[in-house]
Amino acid sequence: MTVHTAGSTAGRPARRSGTVRRLNRVVIRFAGDSGDGIQLTGDRFTSQTASFGNDLATLPNFPAEIRAPAGTLPGVSSFQLHFADHDILTPGDAPDVLVAMNPAALKANIGDVPRGGEVIVDTDEFTPRALQKVGYAHSPLQDGSLDGYHVHPVPLTTLTVQALKDFGLSRKDAERSRNMFALGLLSWMYHRPTDGTEKFLKTKFAKRPEIAEANIAAVRAGWNFGETTEGFAVSYEVAPAAQAFPEGTYRNISGNLALAYGLIAASQQADLPLFLGSYPITPASDILHELSRHKNFGVRTFQAEDEIAAIGAALGAAFGGSLAVTTTSGPGVALKSETIGLAVSLELPLLILDIQRGGPSTGLPTKTEQADLLQAMYGRNGEAPVPVIAPRTPADCFDAALDAARIALTYRTPVFLLSDGYLANGSEPWRIPAIDELPDLHVQFAQGPNHTLDDGTEVFRPYKRDPRTLARPWAVPGTPGLEHRIGGIEKQDGTGNISYDPANHDFMVRTRQAKIDGIDVPDLDVDDPHQANTLVLGWGSTYGPITAAVRRLQAAGESIAQAHLRHLNPFPRNLGEVLRSYDRVLVPEMNLGQLAKLIRAKYLVDAESHTQVNGMPFKAEQLAQALKEAAHAR
Fold first, then answer.
1. d(Cα 377, Cα 594) in Å, to the nearest integer?
2. Planar angle of CA 130, 228, 114, nearest 5 degrees
3. Is 118 exposed, middle or buried (0-12, 13-18, 19+ CB in 10 A)?
4. For the chain, how far is it from start to end, CA to CA, in angstroms?
5. What's the CA gap between 309 and 315, in Å, rounded?
6. Which position among 83, 461, 492, 501 has the lowest Cβ density within 10 Å, counted as fewest Cβ atoms?
């Protein structure tokens, strides 16, 4: 955990002699083999940057294989970090600095580095065999193909082994610390504080202190190498983003971690035990891992044998009076669909967190996509309406979890929350809220009879509805006098008894739909400083790239506005009015146009899609160009 207070200077490294060049932003990409500890290196550099006070955004990118063949292109893992002295919205379109730990990492990533960018390579890995594995006929370090870049050839492996020669480690074990050497070098280059990393290593390897000390020594050796070698005569400084954040205490947070914290906060604000029924699936598993650590908050986690058992247990927990959650990704949603329909029929609060990934079927487990929107809206038999919300940034996942809980508890309904792999694994600074800033989510369980018969007898009617929300009572099993029938067969209005009456079924279907349609959601805000002709409408994780692209276009004088949806079912009540006030509506999505289909069907607006399904988030510059061309098309 990295915490800093906005405006604080704590933890900054001392200024060093030599040439220091001031920058306002930098994009760095670490890349190497899956076994090189690239994600750990990126995570630690991110934590150091967060503690320094920069605004930041990250993009971890790793293969789905548990262990692809070493040194091959399919086995390349990367971690990109964009940090700045001002508010930023994306992990960057292209890296200014590439750290390539082997030839495969160089070949897989060099195409993204603009000419003039800096490239740091581990020359020890550029052996004939390693070059042959990825199709290099000659070493790119010697054939002139990298002449357009500032290349820093560094024997990272040799330097790491030499730095750790007094620790009694085997050469293989010593080589494993070369990622920490690289981390130390980059920390020197960009004036990142390393004390947090040293504390982290001591904690992580508490049972093996010799490994902790070796890794710390590698970090320090990398720092000292940067300080003393002539190959890095210039270091860079990116000042803290003092004006980007409101006053408060911040920490770096990923989307999945923010969801976990949001769920815990919701359970505390509702004064309900939190139950998670889950089956591990990428990229949702981290939520299960995190929540399992918090039994002290009344959290119960159940790792089921399959997706169906997981949601069945969660629905049972909802019936029993818990704030019930199930987490999954697209393939798991397909398996859970029947039980979601049962939850619609039972009208019980249940949160379904779908951390979307590339499909169909198993698809791209470690890549991002937004293609489950229509599945969340309609992927059940019969008329089974479910509210759908989507967070926009990793930090926003915390608030989205609270919002999803509010809707589920208030309206007694299952709720879909659509995050995705980009948000789940990406991170940004998050202001830790005060307790009194959190919503009151307390619910009132049914305590006794709620209906009087014609003969004066008082009875409990499990489907007698709140006239404002249309929610039915939540009766905890075991409460005397509240016994009632549950199950998936259609229920009689009020009594909940089994009913095959056509008129009753028509009434119940329309009532369940009216309950969802009546959910209270805020009106849609529009960023339109100049009364534009074109509106860019987005949802979910496209917020960062869309906002960055629209800001560029607005700064260039383009007549363009932006709005971003959190609530996808029901839509904000003013959405139709907003859409009809623009000549053109553009909808960028990481699917083939699912929101655009919904917009066109509901509002009869000629929404135009701009789509991408390559497993990666939009790049702001490319999106800006596409939006500009679409806005000017006739």
1. 10
2. 50
3. buried
4. 51
5. 10
6. 501
